[in-house]
Batch of 4 targets.
Target 1
Amino acid sequence: MTSNTYRRFALVFRLLMAWTFIYAASHQVWNATFSVAKFLGSTKTFHDLYAPLTAPALDPYLTFAVSYAHLAIGVSLLLGLLVRVSSLAGLLLLLMYWTAHMEWPYIENHNNFIVDYHIVYATVCLYLFFANAGHVFGLDRWASDLAIVRHNDWLKKLVGA
């Protein structure tokens, strides 16, 4: 494959994942009935890990954090800004959902044996991280040329410069 083909795949995968996270946010941010505690309360394999997060006192904070994390990740991927950060955040969220849906060795239902769409999406997020997908028609390329980024190693890593 040519480098143009790789760039096109990086752009398409970035936009597809942006849509996935923004669509998830649309069902959470503007939905008063969405609750992280309700979602995590039905875990099976890792119930002991997730049960403490279902406390009523934590629910509004975790629900807010998860809902707006989806939105922030989606917007970041859409704009191509801080894609390395958002792709890793997306990867972590997706792995959490994968374990939360798990009833070992099945994920969500008996049609998904060990691997389901969460693992596929997490793999795409990992690809976006290593492909520097924010540099393909994204704002990471612009940000990497800013003087503050060029003179700061930490910021260079965030935009993949």
Target 2
Amino acid sequence: MSPLLSVENLRIAFPSRQGPVEVVRGVSFSLGRERLGIVGESGSGKSQTGRAILGLTPVSGTATADRLEFDGVDLRNASTRQWRKLRGARMSMVMQDPKFSLNPVMTIGRQLMEAVKLHGGKSEAHDKSIAMLEAVQIRDPERVMAAYPHELSGGMGQRAMIAMMLVTEPDLLIADEPTSALDVTVQIEVLRILDRLVTERGMGLIFISHDLRLVSTFCDRVLVMYAGRVVEELDARRMNEATHPYTRGLLNCLPTITGDSRPLPVLARDDAWLE
């Protein structure tokens, strides 16, 4: 079976006074109907990789790839019309900060229903929106439907954003730190929803996170990124068997309840990782 998404030699660069600077350098991977985790420090290129897949690289940047294909569609040469059919309906992305992703002058309900209506579900838009808000554990969905983004807490805004991206039941979801602002019980419920969509509907999920423990228990495979490169790929459940010194360093820096970790571990770096 051919993969849902194929990425080969993805490179993203932004201009600077010293010339173009590559923030993603030669990233390659494939995604089936599975949960793929991408981990690494801030600035390692995780979010830019996700944005490039959806054609959302900022205008100032340039994204190139030898291959960037989604379910038989060459995304490198996709027209505006093709992108309109793909984004929202078949490909979605949960951004890291919902406050910058939600329209401040539109109610949550209008934004949720807009996503459904744009992709052929006008008659069921309200009911599907309410059901999805309930699914992410929003207790009074009718009130939230009538609310504006600034009237919601950070965690509730995050849940509304997740509901908006899932309401169309896409084939590919890129989730950038989707549970970072949620408490543990809501986090578990959101992960259950994502897991159900992957297992029952065959959705492909790219799960971007800093939480190595969460990724190791939730995902199927993991890509470890450092300075714009993938330095290691491994089975999520064998994370503790990682061999690359960067991955080992990240694991060693995780806090533990028992034992004394003094002096605090420091992540050692090697210039060879940049080559």
Target 3
Amino acid sequence: MATSGKTNSRIASNRKALHDYFVVEKFEAGVVLKGSEVKSIRDGHISLVGSYARIEDGEIIMHGTDIPPYSHGGHYNHVSDRPRKLLLHRKEILKIKASVERLGQTLIPLSMYFKRGNVKIDLGVCKGKQTQDKRETLRRKTADRDAARAMKR
């Protein structure tokens, strides 16, 4: 099954994570999925809100991602919120582990997309925002939007 001729087609994004965290670094990771999960994702049924990743036994495991059961799956369906393994190179995992342990940062899935038929995740090494940082970000976005409107006129 092809993805409508595009090389990358976005499935879902975690906009709340961009509001709550500063993204320090991004990594592209593959995801270990079952067949019914892929079919459910192709139907557009996925939620990344509240999901996070942890390093467990030298592997990165994603928790909290909700992929509802496939509507035509029958008894072959999957558990909707099971932990899923992320596929990264060993050097990337060690780099992520060092920054998470040393600097107290966290791993957040930012977006999910298809790349040449495979499901990929943008995994962000993130630092939490304080309340004043969130307000400053909203002020900056509003000012940019107002400036763009003024330039358009």
Target 4
Amino acid sequence: MANTLDPMDIKQIITLHLDGLSNRKIGHTLGISRNTVNNYMKLINACDHSPIWS
């Protein structure tokens, strides 16, 4: 079974991204794969009504 991130981890990914960190640095900071960060960012960006970027 694949590991999942809890909502707090996702919030941290978004916060670090908005702070200007690269996906590689976000992954290193949170102890997760850069590819995991990439996948979550794709899902976040695909959301039509995401209030994150407003």
